[in-house]
Write a structure and sequence with these properties.
The protein has ten helices and six strands. By secondary structure, the chain is α/β, with parallel strands linked by helices. It has a six-stranded parallel beta sheet, with helices on both faces. It starts with a helix and ends in a 12-residue tail after the last strand.
């Protein structure tokens, strides 16, 4: 993923290195090529617009153009802005003092929430926690069965409930964790093919019921630039704390990550 974008940027950088001095036209040409490379990688156009504007402004400063190595300075600015875009900090899952900690997963259907829930449970188990998986997707056929199978493979208990009310299942799941001395609850909620009010209402109801310590949105890395619209919609309704990107080993253009 992002391999094609890397190659395009390397080509643009090579062209800059081949020039002794840089003019404003050289900078404009490079920014135009970088803009096309990002758009072709399926990066959201608003993200690209802001990125190019910031980068171009920094590159056109006199101290850059008049330096002994203007090309190297421009390349450094582009890389710095890319790093800023992706984030400079190493984001870790930080659990609070509440027992049990409740982590709620949200996202579109097919984003990989159920698999991500099991992976998260497996990681927490390796860190000496006692997680409980709660199957709140009552709509997708065999969703609970899938979670049960994954939980069995990693040795993590799965609470399924016996009804069709996701809010009740989530609430009962938290109580089950208390009764069985589990210190982390991972709530796997249902997804939809589209961001709709019904799904958001249900997610909000589960949030009110279990008061999660963290809400994590699971995003398919192959979604492309539409992921920005999806993330915005979820942010407005459930105000998630972080994102898990699934399917990062795919061969998609990867612009959604940026």
């Amino acid at each position: 993923m992002l391999e094609n974008l890397s190659e395009r940027l390397q080509g643009i950088f090579s062209g800059l290195r081949g020039k002794g001095r840089l003019t404003e036209d050289d900078i404009n040409d490079a920014m135009r090529e970088i803009r096309m490379a990002l758009l072709e990688a399926d990066v959201n156009f608003k993200v690209v617009k802001g990125f190019i504007a910031r980068t171009k402004e920094r590159c056109l400063e006199a101290e850059v153009l008049d330096s002994l190595t203007p090309a190297q300075n421009v390349i450094k600015i582009v890389l710095d802005e890319l790093t800023e875009l992706l984030g400079r900090t190493d984001s870790k899952l930080v659990l609070g003092s509440r027992i049990p900690n409740v982590i709620m997963l949200v996202g579109l259907q097919g984003s990989g929430k159920t698999t991500a829930a099991a992976k998260l449970a497996y990681r927490l188990k390796q860190e000496n926690h006692s997680p409980l998986l709660v199957a709140c997707d009552v709509y997708r056929p065999a969703a609970a069965d899938q979670l049960q199978t994954l939980g069995g493979e990693i040795g993590v208990r799965v609470y399924r409930g016996d009804g069709q009310d996701p809010v009740r299942i989530a609430t009962e799941g938290v109580q089950d964790a208390i009764d069985n001395l589990r210190d982390v609850v991972i709530v796997d909620t249902a997804g939809r093919l589209h961001v709709d009010d019904e799904m958001m209402d249900e997610a909000e109801a589960i949030k009110r019921a279990v008061k999660p310590d963290q809400i994590l949105m699971v995003v398919d890395a192959m979604t492309g630039q539409d992921v920005v619209n999806v993330a915005s919609a979820f942010s407005e309704r459930v105000d998630f704390d972080g994102v898990i990107m699934s399917k990062m080993d795919g061969d998609a253009r990867g612009g959604g990550a940026l």
